[in-house]
Amino acid sequence: MKTRMLLLLLVCTTFVHAQTVDEALQTTVRQFYAASTQEERLARSNRLSLIANKWNAEWFTHYYSAYAKTLLGVYEQDQTKKISYFEEAEKNLETARATAKGANDEVYALAAMIASMKIGIYPDQWQKYGDQFATNIKKAKDLRKENPRLYYLEGMSKFYTPEAYGGGKKSALPYFQKAAEYFALESDADIRKPSWGKKQNEEMIKKCEE
């Protein structure tokens, strides 16, 4: 209980002192990435929800809230909670989609990621979510084919697909390598422009080359 109160105090203190949406997001996203426990990630995710509520006219605040909840779902071991986090993420992403001025490749990329996570939850519905994954990847590429997260996600999909079905390390590596080329051209200086995935992509290249 004491730990939770301290985390809540930290969240509230950060929120009060943040002067702009950029400062609020930069601080909280950094803290989310640095979190080492699910409890810490949840506290940061709640903070991102507060930011999205305060700056609700900005698509990227809802996007980061969706991204945080997606990762909560990835780390969560309880199946019921995992599903709930992904459902919350999809709701936030829909708000991001509605708030964005025009179609947004990052929104489609995150939608593809959520679809890929659902394949693991509902293996008997792999075709449904596999189609959702492919559709969102295509829509994102039609908008900006240089988005490195698209190739990283495709690489992850290939990596976890059995070799008998065209997957495995050998099939995944070219996607991770392509992602690396585009990650090298990307900057993380502007928090309004999502830049996640570079470190994870580098780790996957090493796994594929082992």
Radius of gyration: 17 Å
Average pLDDT score: 93
* Proportion of helical residues: over 70%
Largest sheet: none
- What's the number of helices? 10
Low-pLDDT parts are none
Task: State the shape.
Answer: globular
| Ends distance | 44 Å
Strand % is under 5%
The arrangement of helices and strands along the chain is HHHHHHHHHH
- Oligomer state of the chains in this structure: single chain
According to DSSP, the number of beta strands is 0
Structural class computed from helices and strand pairing: mainly alpha
Structural account:
- This protein is mostly helical and 210 residues long.
- 76% of the residues lie in helices and 0% in strands.
- It has ten helices and no strands.
- The protein has helices at residues 2-17, 21-34, 38-54, 59-75, 79-99, 105-121, 126-143, 148-159, 169-183, 198-209.
- Helix 8 runs parallel beside helix 10.
- The mean pLDDT is 93.
How are the elements arranged and paired?
Elements: H1 2-17, H2 21-34, H3 38-54, H4 59-75, H5 79-99, H6 105-121, H7 126-143, H8 148-159, H9 169-183, H10 198-209
List keywords for this structure.
single chain; 210 residues; mainly alpha
